[in-house]
Automatic annotation (TrEMBL):
Entries under CDD domains matching the protein: BDH (cd08187)
Gene3D superfamilies per UniProt: 3.40.50.1970, Dehydroquinate synthase-like - alpha domain (1.20.1090.10)
Keyword Kinase among record annotations: no
EC number: 1.1.1.1
Name under which the protein is recorded: Iron-containing alcohol dehydrogenase
MF GO annotations: alcohol dehydrogenase (NAD+) activity
InterPro entries: ADH_Fe/GldA, ADH_Fe_C, ADH_Fe_CS, BDH-like
Domain Fe-containing alcohol dehydrogenase-like C-terminal: residue ranges: 190-359
Pfam families: ADH_Fe_C, Fe-ADH
Keyword set, alphabetical order: Oxidoreductase
Domain Alcohol dehydrogenase iron-type/glycerol dehydrogenase GldA residues, every copy: 11-177
Length: 387
């Protein structure tokens, strides 16, 4: 039992704090021709875009608008075409995880010879060149601002698949907490849940005596439990919002996952629920995680007890009781954020079970979890228990 061998290198520069968007001027080459990539317009309404435009000064730039939540291959390819035709040489994603993920795919696709969908079906491994890019994130949740992953959907084929490549770390991300004040409560709740589950999926596996990752992960979970409700209920409280944002970034920038087993089953099954039923990413995780904890409680026994004791402060010597309570507290935490945790509450019935299992089979997601033993049968039981 020990930390596993690992390499860790995160090259993204984080610029954190109020009034920091102006620093773009020093982060982007003076001669750059910049394509700003945005979503459905929230950054226009809350003033972030105009601050970005001012910070770009005399640089030539244009705006590509219209990246949707759960960004699609189809829309992203329109941006790819624009970049190819007009020779932009710097991309700036301004928005939530969807804008950031789309920007990552777009930058990898611009110079790709052949059908760019192959990038997605190969999990991003075949990206060999990119256009330099950075981010001004406006939604704390995914960690995309400081990692090299992204998730791209294709409507026509019902696919929602992850890409990952070391070339996809952004050069920089400017995190100004005040630019997130305009987020609807629902998106803050989703973001807290997403960051929470990212942490859990790198922590709640089996014990290897990884002292630093465990304590960091517990620190992030405790921060989300303490600061989450504050920032949800007081959206313009800088203190709690700043803490939440940094927790969300740290939850998925590679640090807590270095040297430890990982379990991304909740995310993988969740992506199928999003593509099939349009349920927000963060919500799919809240629906599935309590059922997964219950289903895998024998495999995860040691870590579930540690989680119950250290994160929820549960006491006593009856370990099964601690696990029961830890699972109940996890569900109650999600519900306290206003997130419903059963599929029926999203008007999804038992016909979902076969459909999700078929999607997982089609996507070769047949051996999930830290031990590869979340088979289709186990995933089926997890979805059934989530109805
Ligand atoms: O489109 P606009 O108008 O910008 O509105 C967005 C969108 O409707 C809005 N929003 C964003 N910032 C705002 C704001 N509204 C008001 N004020 C602001 N400051 O919020 C809505 C949701 O945005 P979206 O970007 O879709 O949400 P999120 O950041 O949760 O990203 C979700 C996507 O990230 C993927 C998910 O699968 C999903 O596709 N993930 C990416 C990961 C990664 N790259 O590492 C990991 C995650 O596990 C996740 O899978
Ligand atoms: Zn996530």
């Amino acid at each position: 039992m020990a930390l596993q061998n690992f390499e860790f290198c995160n090259p993204t520069r984080i610029v954190f704090g109020q009034e920091t968007i102006q620093k773009l001027n020093g982060l982007i080459p003076e001669t750059a021709k910049v394509l700003i990539i945005i979503g459905g317009g929230s950054v226009r309404k809350n003033g972030t875009l105009s601050e970005v435009e001012t910070a770009l000064g005399r640089r030539e730039f244009a705006v590509f608008e219209g990246i949707e939540a759960n960004p699609t291959f189809e829309t992203s390819m329109q941006a790819v075409e624009k970049i190819r035709q007009e020779s932009f040489d710097f991309l700036l994603g301004v928005g939530g995880g969807s804008v950031m993920d789309a920007t990552k795919f777009i930058t990898g696709a611009v110079n790709y010879k052949g059908d760019a969908w192959e990038i997605v079906t190969n999990g991003g491994s075949n990206i060999t060149s990119i256009v330099p890019f950075g981010f001004v994130p406006t939604l704390p949740a995914t960690g995309s601002e400081m990692n090299c992953g992204g998730v791209i959907s294709r409507k026509a084929t019902n696919d929602k698949l992850s890409i990952r490549n070391d070339l996809l770390y952004p050069l920089f991300s400017i995190l100004d907490p005040t630019k997130t004040y305009s987020l609807p409560k629902k998106q803050i709740a989703n973001g807290i849940a997403d960051a929470f589950v990212h942490t859990i999926e790198q922590y709640l596996t089996y014990p290897i005596h990884a002292a630093v990752p465990d304590r960091f992960a517990e620190g992030i979970l405790l921060t989300l439990i303490e600061e989450g409700p504050k920032t949800l209920n007081n959206p313009e409280d800088y203190e709690s919002r700043a803490n939440f944002i940094w927790a969300a970034t740290m939850a998925l920038n590679g640090l807590i996952g270095a040297g430890v087993p990982q379990d991304w089953a909740t995310h993988m099954i969740g992506h199928e629920l999003t593509i099939l039923y349009g349920i927000d990413h963060g919500r799919t995780l809240c629906i599935l995680l309590p059922s997964l904890m219950q289903e895998m409680r024998k495999d995860k026994h040691g870590k579930l007890v540690q989680y119950g004791r250290r994160v929820w402060g549960l006491q006593g010597s009856d370990e099964e009781k601690i696990i029961d309570e830890a699972i109940a507290k996890t569900r109650a935490f999600f519900e306290s954020l206003g997130i419903k945790t059963y599929l029926k509450e999203y008007d999804v019935d038992s016909s979902a079970v076969d459909k999700v299992v078929e999607q997982l089979r089609r996507h070769h997601l047949t051996a999930l979890g830290e031990r590869g033993n979340v088979t289709l049968e186990v995933s089926r039981r997890i979805v059934e228990a989530s109805l």
